[in-house]
Amino acid sequence: MVRHIDELWLERGRQVQTGAETRQKKSLPVYAKTKVFQIWHPNMIWGTFQTADYAAEILQQAVRFLEFPNDIEAAVGKLLERRRYLYAGNRIHNVLLGEHALYSNVGGPAVMKTQLDCLLALMGLPRVSLGIVPAPQPLRSGWGTASPCSTTSSFWWRPTRRSSPSPSHEKWATTNRDWW
Questions:
Q1: Which secondary-structure segment (H or E) carries 167?
Q2: Where in the chain are the domains?
Q3: How many CB atoms lie within 10 A of CB 171?
Q4: Per-residue pLDDT tens for 9-44?
């Protein structure tokens, strides 16, 4: 894996050399074909769940870091087009976010408030399940010392009603080990 990192970096550069809109446009056919989304994002809100302001800030950071053409407005428009798949058809969206995504303060307090309100609204959709994986916490021994290698083994989960109930979707995982 490490020896291919340069190749991966160059490939990512090729993908965005014409701007972010092209990259976002390429994902639309994939979304159209996908019936069950199982998403894990440890440190930010998944693109389809992002508000326009949150997405614009994330893309602005990418433009600054990767130095590709600034077509953020068009790219956000394409990214938001993917939202229609939350409401159309019988697609199921099982999404796990890391707790850090809720505290990252992307774009400032106003942007994050709107983003968190959006997440609450999306949780009410019948085919959306959202889980939050807590940030790792040190395990305390009997003497009050922390072990830097230990983490919690559970996460918060809010199962939702499904239009077609399936036992495999009602209880997705109970510990980090089940997820991996």
A1: helix 167-170
A2: 2-179
A3: 10
A4: 676 666 667 677 777 888 888 888 999 999 999 999
